[in-house]
Amino acid sequence: MGRMTAPLPDDEVARAMAAVDRRRFLPWAQRGHAAEDRPLAIGHGQTCSQPATVAAMLRLLDVPPGAAVLDVGAGSGWTTVLLAHLTGPGGSVLGLERVPELAAWGAANVARAGVPWARLRPAGHGVLGAPRAGGWPRVLVSASPDVLPGALVDQVAPGGRMVVPVGGTMLVVARDVAGSVQVTEHGEYRFVPLVED
């Protein structure tokens, strides 16, 4: 008798990934590879992350409907739109991308996606993330710093969480309502480096 395979998850993340066509967030030359479970180059040394990795990160992030989410390293805008599906129209998503050409392309992709509560803009020079009064309830980081950036940890709201690959290890940074931070590890992954201006 063959080994049974686990059923694919049927959850909000799976539904969001089914609803958002990855091809629309890839250069023309890569669109034929959209269904492949691997990272794909989008130019300027950046990639559209592997779908299985994105799904794992989104499940770790545990985005509630109506949340405000910061998407660092948004690239083509795919994760920004996925996050918008998870927050629903009552939420808001801000994608940041440090490469100006990618930010412009990603912003156009997000604008075409029919999720007006999400937007993508160029990352500010000399600023990591986007400081916000009260912090962000959820922060997704799709590039890997060598060490956990304190500037991003400081932007996690009380009761919030951040998912970030640091030195190849996926971390969940959770801040409790009293402000204490707990960091847990969730496997090994490869990402493009997080570059700070």
Keywords:
197 residues, alpha/beta, Rossmann fold, seven-stranded mixed beta sheet, two-stranded antiparallel ribbon, 28% strand, disordered N terminus
Can you lay out the helices and strands and say which pair or pack?
Elements: H1 12-19, E1 40-43, E2 46-48, H2 51-61, E3 68-72, H3 78-87, E4 92-97, H4 100-112, E5 118-122, E6 136-141, H5 150-153, E7 156-166, E8 169-175, E9 181-188
Helix pairs in contact: 1-3
Describe the structure.
By secondary structure, the protein is of the alpha/beta class. The chain has a single domain (12-188), classed as Rossmann fold (3-Layer(aba) Sandwich), CATH 3.40.50.150. 23% of the residues lie in helices and 28% in strands. The protein contains five helices and nine strands. The protein has helices spanning 12-19, 51-61, 78-87, 100-112, 150-153, and strands spanning 40-43, 46-48, 68-72, 92-97, 118-122, 136-141, 156-166, 169-175, 181-188. A seven-stranded mixed β-sheet has the order 5-4-3-6-7-8-9. Residues 1-8 have low confidence and may be disordered.
